[in-house]
C-alpha cells in the first residue's frame, strides 16, 4: 500500500508552481495558489519542523526589533 503525506504533496505543488515562468495569471489561478500555500502552512504548523521555523522567525524578528531601537 502506498501512502503519501499531504504536506509533502502540497510542498511539491508549490515548488512546481514557483518554477513556472512569470506570466499573467487569472484570479482563479491566484486564488488556487494562495489556498494551496495556506493549507500547506496549516499542515506544517503543528509539526516539529513548523515549530522550529516559527522559533527561527521569532528570533529573526526580535533581532531586527532590537537593532532598530
From TrEMBL:
Keywords, sorted A to Z: Membrane, Transmembrane, Transmembrane helix
Superkingdom: Bacteria
Transmembrane stretches, start-end: 31-49
Annotated protein name in UniProt: DUF2304 domain-containing protein
Gene source species: Streptomyces bugieae
Amino acid at each position: 500500500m502506498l501512502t503519501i503525506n499531504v504536506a509533502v504533496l502540497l510542498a511539491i505543488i508549490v515548488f512546481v508552481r514557483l518554477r513556472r515562468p512569470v506570466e499573467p495569471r487569472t484570479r482563479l489561478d491566484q486564488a488556487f495558489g494562495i489556498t494551496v500555500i495556506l493549507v500547506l502552512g496549516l499542515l506544517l504548523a503543528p509539526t516539529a519542523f513548523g515549530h522550529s521555523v516559527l522559533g527561527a522567525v521569532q528570533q529573526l524578528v526580535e533581532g531586527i526589533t532590537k537593532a532598530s531601537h
